[in-house]
Amino acid sequence: MSFATIMVTVARGVCHVTLNRPAQKNAMSLAMVAELRTALDEALADDGVRVILLRGADRNFCSGGDITDMAAARGAAPDGADPIAAMNAKFGFLCAAFAESNKPVVAVLEGAVIGGGFGLACVADVAVAHAGAKFRLAETSLGLVPAQIAPFLVARLGFSTANRLALTAATFSGAQALAVGMVHELAEDDTALQACVANLLRALQKSPPGALAATKLLLRRAVWQQPETLIDEAAKIFAQAVRSQEGEEGMMAFLQKRAPAWVDPG
């Protein structure tokens, strides 16, 4: 499927999704939100896709929401639901869909990682950044609030750090993003970033899809539930994994000292 605001390719089990509005530093328009959701749904439905990789064109990840769309919504005559709230909710549903994806999502962060782009990075399972990336939660400096990304900020950064960054709207570096847990790996240059992404993709594809999906589901629930409430559910999920074809193949491969069938020998 062709897209106007993103580029999508699939190669070697990886769905590469690139935000592609370089003149706007990949600001997220309503059209981009819709296309990202379509691309995500297609990737989740494709059994050949093992990992979803998000990045931005022209060395910027995303400079936040498109102010033009916001202005248009502000001037629109309400027809039932508030058009501004409806627009904002669409972005929230997109973030939730990425966060709840049963396939690993990797974000590659370069240049501007601002506002909604910051939030989109927070819903990725793993984020890697170029040392030159610039991060900012700019909403409060514009008289706005980081509405839809708030729960993902807290989940990623913890309340204290999320609160400080959101209230101060300060710009910070890739090294600082690494220090606060916003990103998981930092690359000093383009070559190192490329190697980092390649190593990460190989690592993720060493585990089978079913085990990754079950792990993501259980960890998401663990964020919101007390540990004792998850004991029985976690035990059932573990038993299902042991009895699954993936579990049988994984344990047999371990005993036979060979790579399991899902690992690409190349």
Summary tags:
11 helices, alpha/beta, 48% helix, 9 strands, three-stranded mixed beta sheet, 15% strand, 2-enoyl-CoA Hydratase, Chain A, domain 1, 266 residues
Task: Explain how this protein is built.
This protein is an alpha/beta fold and 266 residues long. It folds into 2 domains: 6-204, 2-enoyl-CoA Hydratase, Chain A, domain 1, CATH 3.90.226.10; 209-255. It is built from 11 helices and 9 strands. The strands form 2 sheets. A 6-stranded mixed beta sheet has the order 1-2-3-4-6-9, sandwiched between helices. It has a 3-stranded mixed beta sheet with strand order 5-7-8. Helix 1 (30-45) links the parallel strand 2 (14-19) and strand 3.
CATH class of the largest domain: Alpha Beta
Fill in the CATH topology of the largest domain: 2-enoyl-CoA Hydratase, Chain A, domain 1
Percent helix range: 40-55%
Q: Summarize the biggest pleated sheet.
A: 6 strands, mixed
- What portion of residues belong to β-strands? 15-25%
**Radius of gyration over all CA atoms, rounded:** 19 Å
Could you state the order of secondary-structure elements as H and E?
A: EEHEHHEEHEEHHEHEHHHH
Q: How does CATH name the architecture of the largest domain?
A: Alpha-Beta Complex
- Spatial strand order of the main sheet: 1-2-3-4-6-9
Number of strands: 9
Which of globular, elongated, flat, extended, rod-shaped describes the shape?
globular
CATH superfamily of the largest domain: 2-enoyl-CoA Hydratase, Chain A, domain 1
Mean pLDDT: 90
> Class by helix and strand content?
alpha/beta
Total separate domains:
2
End-to-end CA span: 29 Å
